[in-house]
Amino acid sequence: MKRRFPAQRFTTIMASTALLFVSVAPISALAADPFRTGTTARPIDSDTEAAFTAVFQRGNYPEARQYVQKALKSDPKEPMVYALAAGVAFLDNDWTAMSTYADQTVKVAEKLMPTDPLRGNLYQGVGNFLQAAYSISEGGGGTAIGTPQALLKVQQSLDFIEKAKAVDAKDPELSLLQGFLDWVIASNLGLFDPKQAIDRLQNYAAPNYLSYRGIALAYRDMNQPDQALVAVDEALKAAPDNPELIYLKAQILNIQGKKAESLQLFDQVVTKLDQLPPPFAKEITDERNRVAANQ
């Protein structure tokens, strides 16, 4: 069973590892890298990490908005900040802000090139993707007018990601983004083997609440719900209260024919809809109602 991945959610993931991501206390900036530990950790500010984990570990978008605004002031040299801000603006249909933050993602990433070419190239790729998303948005002219520019930006994005892979193809942050891209393209276009996404996410990506989420999504789309359930349970160990992960498990149980268990989880997610953007909340509510009607 193939399920199209909503453009809003895809853009949010890219915007935050944007991305594609535990502590929210004001700890040392050197300890806040959500992807790496030890000597390879990057100097990512704790407000930036807090915004990332608010979205991807806790699934709390209102909280993420607050941390993004803090991070724009406390971590202005970090391109992930502007990518996160662009993702938030996208969800809010604030096209002017999205365009501005997408451009800033590219500019700040360019300044990283002398000291960190991996992340400099990675976030130039992310920024170009965000610019592509803006081109086909209502603010950028829509698909009819914006598609040619968007296609150019997507190609530029892929070129920058290839340059980042040439620096370190096994980097956890890069592998997370690449794994999700491989999955989206495999699931929607059939151009890649989804096992390629699973291998990359399983072997190299971090943090695990996102890598296992990607693995679960890939197995779900391959109609292998048993493996998908194992993966989503691993993700839930690290993010037990994330409503989107609970929703994903509800979907998988429904595919397995476990309607009552699935509906129980859907109802659990409904209690957390205020944490999610309205389009996500509506999608979940509609699917919950379909499951209930087919019991």
Give an overview in words:
By secondary structure, the protein is mostly helical. The chain has a domain of about 170 residues. Helices cover about 70% and strands about 0% of the residues. It contains 14 helices and no strands. It is globular and about 55 Å long. It starts with 6 loop residues before the first helix and ends with a helix. About 50% of the residues are buried.
Shape: globular
Count of alpha and pi helical runs: 14
- Unreliable stretches covering 5 or more consecutive residues: 1-31
Can you give the helix content as a percent range?
Answer: over 70%
Oligomer: single chain
> Which class best fits the helix and strand makeup?
mainly alpha
Mean pLDDT: 87
| Major pleated sheet | none
What share of the residues does DSSP label as strand, in percent? under 5%
Tally the beta strands.
0
Structural Rg: 18 Å
Keywords:
disordered N terminus, 71% helix, 295 residues, 14 helices, mainly alpha
What layout of secondary structure does this protein have?
Elements: H1 7-16, H2 46-56, H3 61-74, H4 79-91, H5 95-112, H6 117-135, H7 142-168, H8 172-189, H9 194-203, H10 208-221, H11 225-238, H12 243-255, H13 259-270, H14 278-293
In short, what is this structure?
This protein is mainly α. It has helices at residues 7-16, 46-56, 61-74, 79-91, 95-112, 117-135, 142-168, 172-189, 194-203, 208-221, 225-238, 243-255, 259-270, 278-293.
